[in-house]
């Protein structure tokens, strides 16, 4: 099956620094990638949708200037948490989709990145 | 954004018993999917049911979908300690999958 990787798998940073998380589709071209955030004991919340070569679409309440998303190629999307603060500590999960829409909407999920901001 | 609710939020059972989790959603969908997540880990895709299907089986899993009631259920039969995890439903409608709040299942031996 299709594989999506994330790097790093975990990161600890100081408050005020920026952190970049990479999401790669390893054996397919992802026209669309999604970024989710999951706080402890909660569900996944969609943050944004990115299509290769165009600007990301952010969900309501997600600051686009704080969470920079770049989908520069069909196999790579990056999420940069700028000026991170302790409240940004969370589990960030990306997913990738090969085709748009369709009745199965198959999204392949990465293993997640745990961000801890001190 | 979240599509709906899972019920119950937490479920504790003994090994060998069946576990049933329910999911309700609000908008029209193309499909509904169930995922499992062990504590602090990534998602494991369990099963997908299309909007024109009513029931689907996979091993010890049985999923039903009632689009008129906008609800789905996941049944795990003959549960095992290894089934201990959080279970999420997610609805697909051509855009991003939207996840429910999840059910935390604890299976004790």
What does this structure look like?
The complex is a heterodimer of chains A (118) and B (109). Chain A has strands at 4-7, 10-13, 19-25, 32-38, 44-51, 57-58, 67-73, 76-81, 90-97, 107-109, 113-117. By secondary structure, chain A is an all-beta fold. In chain A, the strands form two sheets. In chain A, strands 2, 4, 5, 6, 9, 10 and 11 form a seven-stranded mixed beta sheet that branches. In chain A, a hairpin with a 5-residue loop joins strand 5 and strand 6 (57-58). With 109 residues, chain B is an all-beta fold. Chain B is 0% helix and 56% strand. Chain B has no helices and eleven strands. In chain B, strands 2, 4, 5, 9, 10 and 11 form a six-stranded mixed beta sheet that branches. In chain B, strands 1-3-8-7-6 form a five-stranded antiparallel beta sheet, with no helix packed on it. Chain B is globular. Chains A and B meet through strand 5 and strand 9 of A and strand 5 and strand 10 of B.
